[in-house]
Amino acid sequence: MSARTSKRLRWILLISVAITVTLYHTPPWGPRLAYPLMLLSTLAHEMGHGLMGILVGGDFESFKMWSDGSGVARVTGYNGRIAAALVSAGGLCGPAVVAALFFALCNKDKWAKASLAAVGIALLVADLLLVRSFFGIFFVGALGALFLWVPLKGPQWASQFTLVFVAVQLALSVFSRADYLFTPVAETAGGSMPSDVAQMSNALFLPYWFWGALCGAFSIAVLFWGLRFFFKSSNKAA
């Protein structure tokens, strides 16, 4: 990566943070403009449940997403309390893990293009096979098409910048939606249900707030690793 590209990536990191924080704190139009950014964290959250379910030997059967930003993933076929807790944790830590990976992969143009294209293809496949709500089909399909278009047809620098921008949104969502880590009930358009931390508590006995704090600490640690890698690579190129 050239020093010029490194400088641009740092600028877009700072600009992305500034824009996002401004949008969320300038009502009434700011939060409305930030609406699609909020949906990114919901998508990463629910996909985190599904992918963790696959890793523990289960089946990712379906995913629903609604216009209010709520969602639910249906994961079955896994066994044991630990597996159940890991599936719940997969959603809570999913946005941070994806953000950290994007921060780590954006520094090289080839990696950025390949990563963004792979995510785009995965989203389009998931849209066909897993998404079971009209709004979810539209959003996941549109995002998948965008992620595939950018590396194939966009400017040379677009893939790196897209990864940085999305990573910033997911990283900030860890803090903006942190209240969900400390609530026993999840309110969705499909109805009320036990929150992820409540399900972890039911599986592993300790209080739900303990698991919320643990998932929050893990998310921050993962983000720190991703940002450290990002700035370390940038410093080498500078």
How is this structure best described in words?
- It is a single chain.
- This protein is mainly α and 238 residues long.
- The chain has one domain (3-237).
- The chain contains nine helices and four strands.
- It has helices at 3-24, 29-33, 35-55, 81-105, 109-129, 134-153, 158-176, 196-204, 208-237; strands spanning 59-65, 71-76, 185-188, 191-194.
- It has a two-stranded antiparallel ribbon with strand order 1-2. The chain has a two-stranded antiparallel sheet with strand order 3-4.
- A hairpin with a 5-residue loop joins strand 1 (59-65) and strand 2.
- The longest helix has 30 residues, at 208-237.
- 43% of the residues are buried.
- The model has no long low-confidence stretch (mean pLDDT 89).
Q: How is this structure best summarized?
A:
The chain has one domain (3-237). 72% of the residues lie in helices and 9% in strands. The chain contains nine helices and four strands.
Descriptive key words:
mainly alpha, 238 residues, 72% helix, single chain
